[in-house]
Amino acid sequence: MFEVYVAARFEAAHRLLGDFGPATRVHGHTYRMEVIVRGRQLGDDGTLYDIGKLNRAVSGLASSLDYRDLNEVPGLAGVNTTAEAVADYCWERLAPPLRGRGLDSLVVRIWESRDAYAAREDTLGR
Amino acid sequence: MFEVYVAARFEAAHRLLGDFGPATRVHGHTYRMEVIVRGRQLGDDGTLYDIGKLNRAVSGLASSLDYRDLNEVPGLAGVNTTAEAVADYCWERLAPPLRGRGLDSLVVRIWESRDAYAAREDTLGR
Amino acid sequence: MFEVYVAARFEAAHRLLGDFGPATRVHGHTYRMEVIVRGRQLGDDGTLYDIGKLNRAVSGLASSLDYRDLNEVPGLAGVNTTAEAVADYCWERLAPPLRGRGLDSLVVRIWESRDAYAAREDTLGR
Hints:
Three copies of one chain form a homotrimer. By secondary structure, chain A is an alpha+beta fold. Chain A contains two helices and five strands; from the N terminus they run ββαβαββ.
């Protein structure tokens, strides 16, 4: 089994709804998004998936969230913007172009700080 | 599958027994404890498990080990205080309140330095 | 399930062949090699595998690649020196002495930068 990992950052504001104490106030994080694809076989070029290409997809997604209020991002406006929900949102947007490429699974981790992240991992369907 | 991760630090002394060279002398580490819970489903509030709540549990455990000699901590006094044993000790203390909450598994990693850790990962029983 | 992790660094040059843009020019990285062994049972000495011993094996392998042109390293000379290929090369060299020691699997991650790695993970055969 092989993995390829890339990471990107974005600065965003958000606030939680519900019983989350100070996190219900508008605040922000320097988010770090970590993305891993997994698969069984390297191609003839020696890659599982071109790191540069994966990096462009991940950086593009991070840019679309940079200096935004996550509570106002379409696709996140209706949900509680927990790190889990942001990971889910990013997973759904990164997965489609990765399907049918011989990859097994995709992991998206959303770090809110150096000491906390939430992640979604699921199979891609080959 | 979703994950939530938090980390905490503690400063502790220990020494190993057996064929471990300089590590048999009393020394210490700035330990980093990383804790991950895994589960399949987000709750209505958009969380797998409240990061703040997990952080309080992990920070409390780290505090209980801070500025201690691990070889004198009850529950570690009878074992070799390898990073594996410390991970096992922390796993057993963190797991009980996490059971029956829809979580699948718990990982505890104990870093002795930036370049070395040991971890225990096991299912929680839902 | 327990894990033991160690890391080491090496400085090396390489270049890719094929459709990889600027990465086809000779360049270099401060590579970080992360190695994880997994297994089910701790020994009587409280270790899954001696971290110091694993560290010596990993550091020795890293030293053998330090200040080298990866495209000229025997065993890598015939392949595209992607991070996946370097992970595969290192996996094959670390695995043999780890077999038959009660370990289940071995992971080798090769970081080309803080934001990108490739990894190989496979069972060791106990």
